[in-house]
Structure formats: structure tokens, C-alpha cells
Amino acid sequence: MSKVPGWLGRVGAGLTRMGQRLEERRAASESGDEPVGESAAVPESVPAPPTYAPAVAARPDPVAAIPWGMRVAAEAGWRLLVLAGTLWVLMKVISEVQLVVLAFVAALLITALLQPTVARLRGMGLPRGLATALTAITGFVIMGLVGWFVVWQVMDNLGDISDRVRDGIDELKAWLLDSPFHVTEQQINDIAKNLSDTIGTNTEEITTAGLQGVTVMVEILTGILLTMFSTLFLLYDGKKVWTWWLKLVPAQARPGVAGAGPRAWRTLTAYVRGTVIVALIDAIFIGLGIYFLDVPLAVPLGVFIFLFSFIPLVGAVVSGALAVIVALVTQGVFTALMVLLVVLAVQQIEGHVLQPFILGRAVRVHPLAVVLAVASGGLVAGIGGAVVAVPLVAVTNTVVGYLRAYSQEQALRAAPAHGATDSAVAGLPSAAPPPASPKGDE
């Protein structure tokens, strides 16, 4: 029995030492020191692989595996697809409400022409409502009188024109028989017979076209009424309309748009004024040439030349060709050649003197852009699209140029430490939005 306490003491001492070693190991693992005792047999580091073992490269990130040029093309591609889809939807919407859009654009053009008169009348002390009413009524009355005068002239000279056309056809027939083209009378009669048969067999189509013409006339009258009402409200409340539209623009882009608006309006006003002056000069001088050459319908042809002058390039060709054709069938080949010379001379003066001097640099658009814009506008919306295409391009050019300068100025002001000093910022054209509204009526 005397040996039991000694054995228990040795067991207790052994447990104590074991607990101490466990405490030492835990303390060593927490402090990062090398373990003691039995742990000394653990190797200090993992041995390196042998030199003959093949190197296994890690798999790259899929984004890094795609070439940089392809990534740029993909980024640009999906943005272009989104932009093209947006434009397509916008064009579909515009085509559905084409009459309303063209009426509003026509109202903008008329407003740009009449607004300076409203501003002058208000400067003379007239109230805004009275000045707007006087200007709008006077402008629409003048346009109506011009249209009535053209129709009256055409109807009054229709009988004389028919006789002259028949005489001209007979003269043309005689000239063809005596010409070196070896045209026989039988061939001329066959052409006339085929033309008559074509008209007779297509009577139904002609009737349908006449009914469609009635629908077109209704649409034209509706467009005229919409244009008149839109013009009245734009002349009277142009500033309020512009302010309301600015509220729809995001707040971050609002200062830039507010500065671009007045510049776009000045460009549109300059374009309309210059085009009206140039068209009026063309109509007067070509009309006088036609009148002195004794070509009938000189005044209606002058009005047509004035209206077609609003379609750049194409309008001058069409109106000039119409004048030459009327001179050919009524007065003969020599008079037609003289009319052609008059038209070409006036158009050359217009292209090289009048347009650069009157329009100036405010609405300068490259001729290629003019041709493409007129062609695109004509394909999308006919004659109305061709008329509004060039002023739309001119306004867009002005807005884009201003926004580019505005963004550059804002970037320099936000980061002056990157080599941009105050003097460099001050050297840029000022892009701060002016307080004036684009309508300028207040």
C-alpha cells in the first residue's frame, strides 16, 4: 500500500510535463517560431520540383486572352448596334407622324423668318400678343396672295399655253423631220399613237391617282393649319416652350444644351434669311429674263423658282429645267437656249457670290454633305424632307461643334494640374450658356 502514493505522484508529474509541452507547442504555433521537441523533425521548407519536370502555366483570364483590337471592336460594335436600333425606331415613329413633324419643322422655319419682326414691333412698344398677331397675319396673308396670284396666272394663260404647246409640238415635229437624225413621219405618228393608247389603257390608274390626289390635298390643308397654329404659339411663347423642353434634359447635360440652343437658333435664323434673300434674287432676275424673252407664265415660273430655291442644288436644276421646257414648247429652240443661258448665269452668280456673301460662315456646309442630306431627306419624306434636310445638317453641325468646345473647357477646368493653366482655359471659346433664349423674343 505504501507504493501507491508514489505511483500516483509519478503519473501526475508526467501529465504535468505533457501539459507543459502542449502549451509550448501551441505558443510556438501562434508566434510562428519553430516547434521544439518532436516537431524538430519537420522539414523547414517544401523542396523545389526537379529540373526535368515540365513547367505548367496557369490558365489566363478569358478577358486577357482576347486580343485588344477585338475587344475594342466588340465594345464599339454593340454601341453602334444600340445607336442604329434607336435611330431605326425613331425613323419609324417619325414616318408614322410625318405630317405633324413636317408641319412643326415648317413652323420653325417660318418662325425663324418672322421672329425678328415680332422683336422690332415689341421694341416699338406693342404688346407681345398684338405684335405676334400682326406679324403672323401679315405673313400668312402675303403667302396666300402669292399662291392665289400664281394659280390665277396659270388659269388665265392656260388657253394660250395650250395653243402655243400645240404650235411648239408641230414645230418640233417639223424640225425632227428635217434633222440629221433621219426621223420619219411614221415613227412620230407611232410614238403619238403609243402615248394615246397608254393613256387610254391606264384610265383606271389615272382615276385612282386622282382620288389619291384628293387625299393628298386634304393632308396638305391639314399640314397648313398645323403649321399656322404652331407658328403662332412659337412666336408668342417660344421662350416658354424652350424652357419647358430644357426641363426634360438631364441636369448634368442641361448647361451644355442651354448654351447650344441659342447658337442653333441663330444658325437656323441665318439660314432662313439668307435662303429667302438668295431665292428672291434668283426669282427676280430669272423671271425678268424669261419676261423679256417673251416666254409665257413668267411670273408663275418666277414663283416656282423662288420656292424650289429652298431645295439646295436639286431645286435650282428642277426649276431651271422647267423654265427651259416651257420656253422650248412655246417659243422654240433659240428662246429655250437663251433661257438656259440666263438660268446658268444667275445660278453661277448665286453659287459664287450670293451664298458666300449672304449666308457667310454661320451655315457653311460641305457640298457633299448637302447632296447626301438632300438625297436622304427626299428618300425619307419627299419634297418636305429635302427642304428641311440642309438646315437640319447646319444646326446639327453648330450644336456638335459647340458641345465639343464646351466639353473640352469643362475637362480643362476640372483638371488644371495636367498641364492646363488658367490662361490656357481662358483661351478657349467661351461655352457658358448665355441667358438669352433661342427664340430671342424677350
UniProtKB/TrEMBL annotation:
Membrane topology label: Multi-pass membrane protein
Location of this chain's protein in the cell: Cell membrane
Principal location class: membrane
GO biological process: transmembrane transport
Bias-annotated ranges (Pro residues): 431-442
Residue ranges of the TM segments: 100-118, 130-151, 214-236, 270-292, 298-318, 325-349, 369-395
Name of the molecule in the record: AI-2E family transporter
Provenance organism: Streptomyces lavendofoliae
